Amino acid sequence: MNKIKFLGTAGARFVVTRQLRASGGIWFELDDTRFLLDPGPGSLVKCFSSRPKKDPFTLDAIILSHRHIDHSSDLNIMVEAMTNGGFKKRGSVFLPPDAVEKEPIFFKYLYPAIDELVIYEEKSRYKIKNIDILTSRKLIHPVETCGFEFKFSKGSIGYVADTRFFNELVNEFKSDVLIINTVRYDHDPDSSKIIDHLTFNEAIHLIKEIKPKLAVLTHFGMTMLKNKPHELAEKASRQTDIKVICASDGLEIDLDKIL
Ligand SMILES: [Zn+2]
Ligand SMILES: [Zn+2]
After folding, report:
1. Contact 242/259 with Cβ under 8 angstroms?
2. What is the pLDDT of residues 65-116, one digit of tens each?
3. 184 C-alpha to center of ligand 2: Å?
4. Mind listing the domains of the chain with CATH numbers?
5. 3-class DSSP assignment, residue 58
6. Is the distance from CB of 100 to CB of 110 less than 8 angstroms?
7. C-alpha 13: how far from chain center
8. Pick from 39, 56, 72, 127: most CB atoms within 10 A?
9. Contact by Cβ (8 Å): 153, 132
10. 200: helix, coil or strand?
11. 236 in Cβ contact with 200 (< 8 Å)
């Protein structure tokens, strides 16, 4: 059984700090390999409140796209949970370089608890059991950020993490299932500053160009929530001729039905 579960769909600061949406990251089960991507605030709690619950002790890896708190705050406690409180050495942790440099976000006392700490680079290939993980080129975001392609026996899943739009994104994320962090509905018309996040129309552009079998928008800020994600999903599906879902907290996608 191959599936993805959204333990959270919150993006920007207000949605996360007010918990208008949960922020536990995304749980993957592919080819009998389990990993958690971007465990933000409440990830551990969400694992155990999910039905059926997700047991972190079964995780093979924890992966961070970048160090921002909505993606990383539960990293240390999730590593404790993955390793039975540090007593059972197991699992890998994938981090960008700036997560362990000047202001480390991964506690050193946990290093001996895991099998492998991978400080990943852009455009590189790694493995978790039988799953290939390809990092994208560096994304445009205030801290070191990469997206990923996860390749398993039935296909590939692309994860466009937080980034400003740039044209090369289209070539970086060719995949069968495309997950896009879509924080904003549009750029703030009152600000000349372009923020380093994708908008709804930019996500549509990516979907049109990449043509996945399924696209999933997530990581929503206030402007996305105000524009009713379920209506936006219908609009995006019409505009792209591709099935587009706006993720909700707890959404589970059965990949065997799609790929
Ligand atoms: Zn974020
Ligand atoms: Zn971020």
Report:
1. no
2. 999 999 999 999 999 999 999 999 999 999 999 999 989 999 999 999 999 9
3. 13
4. 3-257 (3.60.15.10)
5. helix
6. no
7. 16
8. 39
9. no
10. helix
11. yes
